[in-house]
C-alpha cells in the first residue's frame, strides 16, 4: 500500500530562507549586483522545490551554494546597492510622489498615517523621513535597529484598528517568495492588515513593486492577469509606472473582497519566458 501523501501548504517565507553567511562587504558593480540577486533568486526557487519534495540532500547542497555566494546578507547588500542613488534610487520615493497631494492635507494636530514596510532595508528612505508617516519596518534579517526581524506571513493578525495600516509596501518582496501559492497568500494577507480609517482623504493602499520581467516576460503572468487577481481581492489600480527594470503599482482597496481561484495557466509561450506566477486559492 502506497504511503499517504501529505497535503501541501504554502511555506512560510522564513522557511525558504537559507542559513545566513557572513557578508563579504566588498563593493559590487551594477552588473555584479544584478548577477548576485538573480542567482540568489534562482537558488531560493530550487531550494523551495527541493524542500517541498523532501530532498534534504539537495536542500543541503543548495544551502552550501547560497553560503558560497555570501548568503542572505550579501543579497541584502546587493539590494541596498540597487536602491542607492547611482543605481536608480529609493523606490519609496515613487510612493511619496504619488500620495503627495494627500500628504499635504496632514498636519501635526492629526495622527500620522501608519505604513507597514515589508522587506525593509533602510530606516532613511523617503517613507521613513516623511513627517506624516509612522513607518513599521520588518524584514527576515534585520540589519538596522529600526527594522524588526519578522516574517510577514507569521506576523499576528490585527486585533484592532490600531494594529492595521493605511499603506502596505511590498517593494521587490512578492518576487522573493519562491512559490506561486505563497505569493497569492501574501496578497490575501495584506487585505487583513489594511484599515479604512484614515485621518486624511487616503484610501487603504498597497504599494507593489516587481521586476518588469515578472509581468512582461512570464509564461503565467501579465498585467491583465495581475489586475484580475488584484481586483478580486478588492484592489483598484490608481497609479502605475514603468522603468527599464521595474514596474510600480499603487493599488487602492475598495473594501470589497471576493477572492476566486487563479491557477497556473500559460498565457504566453516561448523558450525564453520565465516561470513567475501567482496562484490564488479561493479559500
UniProtKB/TrEMBL annotation:
Protein's recorded name: 25S rRNA adenine-N(1) methyltransferase
Keyword terms: Methyltransferase, Nucleus, S-adenosyl-L-methionine, Transferase
EC number: 2.1.1.-
Molecular function GO terms recorded: rRNA (adenine) methyltransferase activity
Family: Belongs to the BMT2 family.
UniProt keyword annotation of Ribonucleoprotein present: no
Domain of life: Eukaryota
Cross-referenced PANTHER family: 25S RRNA (ADENINE(2142)-N(1))-METHYLTRANSFERASE, S-ADENOSYLMETHIONINE SENSOR UPSTREAM OF MTORC1-RELATED
Localization per Swiss-Prot or TrEMBL: Nucleus, Nucleolus
Lineage of the organism: Eukaryota, Fungi, Dikarya, Ascomycota, Pezizomycotina
Function, in words: S-adenosyl-L-methionine-dependent methyltransferase that specifically methylates the N(1) position of an adenine present in helix 65 in 25S rRNA.
Amino acid at each position: 500500500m502506497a504511503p499517504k501523501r501529505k497535503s501541501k501548504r504554502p511555506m512560510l517565507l522564513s522557511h525558504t530562507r537559507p542559513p545566513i553567511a557572513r557578508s563579504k562587504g566588498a563593493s559590487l558593480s551594477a552588473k555584479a549586483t544584478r548577477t548576485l540577486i538573480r542567482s540568489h533568486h534562482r537558488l531560493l526557487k530550487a531550494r523551495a522545490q527541493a524542500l517541498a519534495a523532501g530532498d534534504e540532500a539537495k536542500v543541503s547542497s543548495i544551502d552550501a551554494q547560497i553560503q558560497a555566494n555570501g548568503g542572505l546578507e550579501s543579497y541584502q547588500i546587493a539590494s541596498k546597492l540597487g536602491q542607492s542613488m547611482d543605481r536608480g534610487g529609493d523606490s519609496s520615493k515613487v510612493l511619496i510622489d504619488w500620495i503627495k497631494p494627500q500628504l499635504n492635507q496632514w498636519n501635526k494636530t492629526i495622527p500620522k498615517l501608519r505604513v507597514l514596510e515589508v522587506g525593509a532595508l533602510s530606516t532613511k528612505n523617503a517613507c521613513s523621513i516623511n513627517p506624516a508617516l509612522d513607518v513599521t519596518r520588518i524584514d527576515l534579517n534585520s540589519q538596522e535597529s529600526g527594522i524588526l526581524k519578522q516574517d510577514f506571513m507569521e506576523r499576528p493578525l490585527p486585533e484592532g484598528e490600531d494594529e492595521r495600516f493605511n499603506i502596505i509596501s511590498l517593494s521587490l518582496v512578492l518576487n522573493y517568495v519562491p512559490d506561486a501559492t505563497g505569493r497569492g497568500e501574501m496578497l490575501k494577507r495584506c487585505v487583513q492588515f489594511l484599515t479604512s480609517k484614515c485621518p486624511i482623504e487616503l484610501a487603504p493602499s498597497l504599494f507593489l513593486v516587481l521586476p518588469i520581467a515578472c509581468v512582461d516576460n512570464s509564461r503565467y503572468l501579465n498585467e491583465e492577469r495581475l489586475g484580475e487577481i488584484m481586483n478580486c481581492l478588492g484592489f483598484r489600480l490608481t497609479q502605475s509606472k514603468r522603468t527599464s527594470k521595474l514596474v510600480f503599482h499603487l493599488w487602492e482597496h475598495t473594501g470589497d473582497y471576493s477572492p476566486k481561484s487563479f491557477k497556473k495557466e500559460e498565457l504566453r509561450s516561448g523558450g525564453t519566458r520565465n516561470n513567475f506566477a501567482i496562484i490564488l486559492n479561493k479559500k
